[in-house]
Amino acid sequence: MVYAVPLIIFMDDVSGNVSKQWNKHHAIYMSNANLPHEMLEKFFVRFVTSSPHAAPMELMRAMKESICVAAESGIVAWDCKDSEEVMLIPYGLFVAGDNPMQAEECSHTGLNCNYYCRTCDVGNTKEYKESETGYTSIFNSGNIQTPEETANKVRQQFETAMLSGASEKVKNSMSSTGIRDTASASVLNTLLELGKKLRKRTAGSPALPENEVRIALEKEFEQLLQGGKLDDAINPLLGMHDVFLLEKLKLLHLFQNRLETVNKDVLNAPCLNADYICHYKGSLIGKHFKSLAQVMPFLIYDLVPPTVLNGWTVMGELVVLVWHTENNKH
């Protein structure tokens, strides 16, 4: 027997951090749409993948490829009810998620713009939507948004950014079309700010002619797309940068080795996992620092200047005075 398995795929960003230990990340979950609704609400939601580094579309692409491979070859399973082998063919039924995140990934401005749907072009101006005809049109699906149309509207925004008064014009364009591309937003904002500076009049000198402003903006745009400005800043320092990274890596390995081998028997410090501390050095919290403060002078005595070593020594002495994990008074 062969069964088709429709999958409900859900993606969201987890950013409500309570402490530094839990960084913002994206997660994908999946559930079987064949199951009854009451079961999907409480059970059978399965974790698929998560990453604090990979972009949402990278995660979704990897997940899609996994589903495609499984659909091509099929998944052999055992049907415990009928006591026979069956083949499962999974396919994506729909992708769920919260509106703000999905709007951002679809280059959409969200629910507050005139064309508030990221899937079709339903909507219009506020006055039109408040009219009888406009209100009725809200409940009808519009023309489907396509990647080509979205890309054309983003290009039009960049063309508008070259004009005088571009900031307000680009803002109106985003509101009227519902398109705002987060991937290129930094480049667009750079052009808008540069345009303001070039057109600004200074005392004793006239403003630049509009054709010169446009030439300067187009040149800046080309350099931003090619990464020229970044290369010009980095190339002279590449040699120094490589040496610095190599030395930093050596020190980090030396520090990790010392942390792994330091005697912890007499310490009330359960949080000295060297691999975790060095790998997640930007996400440590209080319990890690309390433990490190007791051993740090023995790890860095020949790696840092005397003033830094003295600072860690003082902190270590202070920590053992103020940090009590047990109350021995009866």
Globally, the shape reads flat
**What percentage of the residues does DSSP assign to strands (E)?**
5-15%
Number of helices: 14
Order of helices and strands: EEHEHEEHHHHHHHHHHHH
Task: Give the strand line-up of the largest sheet.
Answer: 3-2-1-5-4
Structural class by helix and strand composition:
alpha+beta
Outline the low-pLDDT stretches: 228-244
Number of strands: 5
> Mind summarizing the main beta sheet?
5 strands, mixed
Task: Return Rg in Å.
Answer: 29 Å
Structure in words:
- α6 runs antiparallel to α7 and α13 crosses α14 (306-322).
- With 330 residues, the protein is of the alpha+beta class.
- Strands 3-2-1-5-4 form a 5-stranded mixed beta sheet.
- The chain has helices spanning 37-42, 56-73, 99-105, 126-130, 132-137, 147-160, 166-177, 185-199, 210-226, 228-234, 238-261, 274-279, 286-300, 306-322, and strands at residues 2-14, 25-32, 45-51, 75-79, 84-96.
- It starts with a strand and ends in an 8-residue tail after the last helix.
